[in-house]
Amino acid sequence: MAEPGTASSQRGESLLFLTDEQLRKGIEAMFFAYRGFTADPDRILEKYGYGRAHHRALHFIHRAPGTTVNNLLAILGVTKQSLNRVLRGLIADGLVESKVGKRDKRERHLYLTVIGEALEQELSDAQRARMREAYKIAGPEAVIGFRQVLEAMMDPEMHRHFAALKEGANDR
User: Fold this and answer.
1) What would the mean pLDDT of 138-147 be, rounded to a whole number?
2) Is the pLDDT of residue 17 over 90?
3) What's the pLDDT tens digit per position in 95-120?
């Protein structure tokens, strides 16, 4: 924690007094940034008849190979019916493989196939290029601050999932 009276604490104090207008501009910037962040993958997904739900499933299966359907449900925050619809399509199209659990036969563990890995790579490459360019323009301090803001906005349960992915852990 910064010492009272230091530049760091004064900057922190001034942030406590953001006006509603400043907050509104930040909220609007998030909306427009999200549109930009998803635009490139949306164009790629459209070629295959997929949407953002497919992209999110591919992303998190890639990040945690062997993750269970229940873990994916918790991460994505969607209904079981919605996720099953997405997974059925990805499995039918040969992008995702579902394997019965070795310890618990009721569990289904999810893995990307070679085709799924290729699509996930194409989608991630597009987003990484946009993030890399934005980070380069903003500079290292802004990158750190941006990440801190995003993490501070997460609900505790989502932050636990994020931390587990960050550490390379998953629920297998």
Assistant:
1) 93
2) no
3) 999 998 788 878 899 999 999 999 99
Structure confidence at residue 6 (pLDDT): 52
C-beta of residue 146 within 8 angstroms of C-beta of residue 138: yes
Burial status of residue 152 (CB atoms within 10 A of its CB: 0-12, 13-18, 19 or more): exposed
Sheet containing 96-100, strands listed edge to edge, beginning at the edge strand earlier in sequence: 67-68, 108-112, 96-100
CA distance 63 to 66: 10
The number of residues in the chain equals 172
Encoded tokens for 91: 């499995």
φ, ψ (nearest 5 deg) of residue 141: -65, -40
Q: Which residue is it, tokens 């349960």? A: 157
Assess contact for 111 and 65: CB atoms under 8 A.
yes
**Contacts (Cβ under 8 Å, ≥6 apart) of 51:** 45
Contacts of 157 (CB under 8 A, 6+ apart): 74
- Residue pair 137/32 in contact by the 8 Å Cβ criterion: no
Q: How confident is the model at residue 169 (pLDDT cuts 50, 70, 90)?
A: very low
